[in-house]
Amino acid sequence: MLIVSAPSGSGKSTIVQWLMKEHPELRLYFSISCTSRAPRGTEQNGVEYFFISPEEFRDRIAKNEFLEYEEVYHDRFYGTLKQQVERQREQGQNVVFDVDVKGGVNIKKHYGDEALSLFIQPPSVAELRKRLEGRGTDSAEAIEERLAKAEYEMTFASQFDHVIVNDDLQAAKQETLSVVMDFLNQKE
Description:
- By secondary structure, the chain is of the alpha/beta class.
- Helices cover 45% and strands 22% of the residues.
- The chain starts with a strand and ends with a helix.
């Protein structure tokens, strides 16, 4: 299993998508999370997410069915079901968790050496600001909120197996590939 966490704008999604597309031999598949929000656009139940009600989400929390979960807004939950991860592993998939830092730490605690946890880190907060502003998708206020959250999230880096500083995207991709391949080769 591969756990990947990073502050917004660190390049995590770019690196993970590259690994999955360019290296099918790694058999990497995203874990399918649960959410209590409604599907957006063409999202389908059981493909992008499992869509359940806030009440069912709370019931599953009470039954300890989640590896990790978070209530992002009132009644808006996201989480990873233990049973779904086991189902994917039984199918021979190497499960990828693209989660926030707290979720990443919790999943690593649960699976220990069966999972590799990677933290993708921007070279600096100043560079992160430049990237977020360059996207042109967030207001100045939203960027300040993301930067404050990123500074907090970066304090978790030492709790991950490997920190990859993304100051050069191609180098970060190659380093990630090397670390993942070493991990998978040890597990075979």
